[in-house]
Write a structure and sequence with these properties.
Layout: H1 2-38, H2 47-53, E1 54-57, E2 60-63, H3 65-74, E3 77-81, E4 87-91, H4 103-109, E5 113-114, E6 117-124, E7 127-132, H5 147-151, H6 153-192, H7 208-261, H8 268-298, E8 306-309, H9 311-324, E9 331-336, H10 339-342, E10 346-349, H11 350-366, E11 372-381, E12 384-391, H12 398-402, H13 409-416, H14 418-429, E13 433-438, E14 444-451
Parallel strand pairs: 9-11
Antiparallel strand pairs: 1-2, 3-4, 3-7, 5-6, 6-7, 8-10, 11-12, 12-14, 13-14
Helix pairs in contact: 1-6, 2-3, 6-7, 7-8, 8-14, 9-11, 11-14, 13-14
Transmembrane segments: 156-180
Keywords: ATP-binding, Kinase, Membrane, Nucleotide-binding, Phosphoprotein, Transferase, Transmembrane, Transmembrane helix, Two-component regulatory system
Catalytic activity: ATP + protein L-histidine = ADP + protein N-phospho-L-histidine
């Protein structure tokens, strides 16, 4: 849920930032527009200079060059109305402009329009100077306001700005809450998928399509999970059944081979052949047992009998079993169990851990046919207890060391059979791990790491 809140918070902040940015852009645009389109207005005061440039010489009016340039830059026509209302001078005067005006006519157009021409007027010594702009070029409207209203304009603008900011923030909050309401079911559905829980999300609204896809995905995952469970169960049962069916005829083969091996009436060569048959039958029986155990460990079908045992006593028992079974001369087995190793108590399935240690010792014997010295030891570090099986043989293949962390079981199967796979799976169900290492000088170490 924290990640969803984080997404919503960022969405609210982003929306608020966008809204405030739009307010700032609008203000900047309005300010720019005011400066741009009001920038030419001060030039209108040049009408006084134009009026001063219109002179009367012996009854003839003339506009000096400077005034003419200013007029042509801003206006399209000009006229001078005498005190009797008659036009006494004009320049570019349109045909639809009258040549005589009454006092009422002057009052009506002086501040507005004359025949749709925006006009500006200025007092001249000989009358009234009228300057005309092109039609539809200037908008004129009389705005009248009290001093009190004008004095409150700054406060009104500030309040309007604050209102815009508050509205933007409220909009961002509303959109964030709306998004949270819409996304929360989807978030809960996504988090429920790894738990293999069925989904029934509502498929209406803007997120309906995504919800529908999640519901369908949930159904597919559940079906696949059920199929995998059935397949795994069938595989485990099949392996267990095959193992059981093989044991009976295999026991008979081993029994008859043992009788032939001990039959003194047979030649030595035939007794030796019977011995080979018995040994290989025992090997097949061990492989079938390993296959059955590996399958149960993989699918968590192997029952665990947890008990508190001493690691030192555990490795001593494994060593005694090997010695009593007759460890041949090229091999030796030693124990390194200090007084400190007697103290820690390990919660584990003793039979499975003994099996793991037995597999590791068998692996050292099988891959070092010329003999090697094997050592069992127990060490304790911060937060873990480690049981090691070391030898001074030829060591592990480099690819096995390289893939020790995320071990590829096909690699183990190809080089070391089921023995190391069983070791790895035994440690996995105990919540620990196995680490394979080659020693600097010679030999290797397999470490069973238990998290305490």
């Amino acid at each position: 849920m924290k990640s969803l809140r984080k997404i919503i918070t960022r969405s609210i902040l982003l929306t608020a930032t966008i809204a405030l940015l739009l307010v700032a852009i609008n203000m900047a645009f309005a300010t720019n527009w005011m400066f741009k389109y009001s920038g030419n207005q001060p030039l209108k005061y040049a009408i006084a200079d134009i009026s001063d440039g219109l002179t009367n010489t012996e009854g003839t009016y003339a506009l000096n060059p400077s005034a003419t340039a200013m007029m042509e830059k801003q206006y399209v026509w000009a006229m001078l109305i005498g005190r009797d209302g008659q036009v006494i001078w004009n320049k570019n005067l349109p045909g639809d402009i009258p040549r005589h005006y009454t006092l009422t006519d002057v009052a009506s157009f002086s501040r507005w329009y004359l025949n749709d021409y925006p006009v500006s007027v200025w007092e001249h010594p000989d009358g009234l100077l009228v300057l005309g702009d092109p039609k539809s070029s200037i908008w004129k409207y009389n705005i009248t306001s009290t001093e009190d209203t004008i004095s409150h304009i700054p406060g009104f603008l500030a309040g309007f700005l604050i209102l815009n900011v508050v509205a933007a923030l409220m909009l961002a909050l509303f959109l964030g809450l709306w998004l949270y309401h819409k996304l929360k079911p989807l978030y809960n559905g996504i988090t429920a998928l790894p738990k293999k829980e069925p989904l029934a999300l509502p498929t209406s609204g803007v997120t309906g399509e995504v919800a529908r896809i999640l519901n369908e995905t949930s159904v597919i995952l559940l079906q696949q999970e059920q199929q995998l469970a059935h397949r795994d169960q069938a595989r485990t049962e099949w392996i267990a059944g095959v193992s059981h069916d093989i044991r009976t005829p295999l026991s008979m083969v081993m029994g008859y081979a043992s009788e032939l091996e001990n039959n003194l009436c047979l030649p030595a060569a035939e007794q030796n052949q019977a011995r080979i048959i018995r040994q290989q039958s025992q090997r097949i029986k061990a492989l079938v047992s390993d296959l059955n155990l590996a399958s149960k460990l993989e699918y968590h079908a192997q029952p665990m009998e947890l008990a508190r045992v001493s690691p030192a006593a555990l490795i001593r028992g494994v060593a005694v079993d090997f010695i009593n079974e007759g460890l041949t001369t090229p091999y030796s087995l030693a124990i390194d169990a200090t007084e400190e190793a007697n103290g820690p108590i390990l919660l584990c399935d003793q039979a499975l851990i003994r099996r793991a240690l037995t597999n590791l010792i068998d692996n050292s014997i099988r891959h070092n046919p010329r003999g090697c010295d094997i050592k069992l030891s127990v060490t304790r570090s911060t937060g873990s207890l480690v049981i090691k099986v070391s030898d001074d043989g030829k060591g592990y293949p480099p690819e096995l060391i390289k893939n020790s962390g995320g071990l590829d079981e096909s690699l183990l199967l190809g080089n070391h059979g089921l023995g190391l796979i069983i070791v790895r799976r035994i440690m996995k169900i105990h919540g620990g791990s196995v680490v394979f290492e080659n020693l600097p000088d010679r030999g290797c170490t397999a470490s069973l790491v238990f998290i305490s």
